[in-house]
Structures are given as C-alpha cells and as structure tokens.
Specification:
Layout: H1 5-11, E1 13-15, E2 20-27, H2 31-41, E3 47-50, E4 54-60, H3 61-67, E5 75-76, E6 81-87, H4 97-107, E7 113-116, E8 121-126, H5 130-140
Antiparallel strand pairs: 1-6, 2-4, 2-5, 2-6, 3-4, 6-8, 7-8
C-alpha cells in the first residue's frame, strides 16, 4: 500500500541539531570550492545546490569566517537559520507532504527554506522563528494537541 501524507506525518519525528546556519551564494564557477568546504566541515547537515547561475551552500554559521577566504565572490544571507528535520522515510512517490508542512508553517507566518534528501525532508527556518515553527510542526504531526 502506498504511503499517505497522514501516515507519514503520524510516523514523523522532529529533529534539530541546535546549530545556526548561513546560506552562502557563490558564482557558478565556485562549485569545486563549495564542495571541498562542505566535505571539510563534515557536519551531520550541510547542503549544496548547483544551478546554471550560482552555487548555494548551507553551512554552520561558525564555519563561515573560517572558510571566507576560499569563497571568492560570495554573498551571505542576512538571516541566520535553524534546522528542522522531518525524520521519517518518505516514499519518493508521495504527493503533498511538503504542501501540508509548508501550509502549517505559513499559517504561523514562518518563512521556510525546504531541502529534500533521498528519503527525508529538511527545513531551514529563521532562527528567530524556530520556536514557532517547532510548535506548529509538533501540532501537525500530532505530538501536541
């Protein structure tokens, strides 16, 4: 039987690592530097997205200064983010999971930057909105009434 959104939400646990993150924008030619930085940091969460126009790197805030000299032409997000992982294995054919999650956060006025891994979804929320986001997601997954 195919996984449903309700089943996934019931099975989900929330996870955070209590770190603060920054989003870094690099020119498209910065992909090798970004990949090597991400490999050196070796934290349980990090992300790199490469598209035709830019490289986006998500790293712990305390690592930005350490690697700034290697991030030629970078721009740093003005916001500091916190991680929330929806810790449940999601079927790749599941439809509507992130729509329900983002709707619950939008109803509380929380900005969200979603990242999908192979089987789990991760969210970056502004650090100042973390508690609001956490409470909204706890309610969504049925851990709080």
């Amino acid at each position: 039987m195919a996984q449903t959104v309700d089943d996934a939400l019931k099975a989900a646990q929330l996870y955070t690592d209590d770190l603060e993150y920054q989003m870094i924008k690099l020119p498209a030619r910065g992909v090798v530097a970004a990949a090597s930085i991400l490999a050196e940091i070796n934290e349980p969460f990090g992300a790199m997205i490469v598209d035709k126009d830019e490289v986006t790197l998500v790293i712990p805030s305390d690592a930005v200064t350490d690697f700034a000299r290697r991030m030629y032409g970078h721009a740093q997000s003005p916001a500091v983010y916190r991680l929330i992982t929806l810790d449940v294995e999601l079927d790749p054919t599941l439809t509507g999971f992130m729509a329900r999650v983002s709707s619950a956060l939008a109803a509380q006025g929380v900005t969200v930057m979603p990242f999908a891994a192979f089987t789990r979804d991760h969210l970056l929320v502004p650090a100042e909105q973390f508690e609001t986001a956490w409470a909204a997601l706890q309610k969504l997954i049925g851990r709080v009434s």
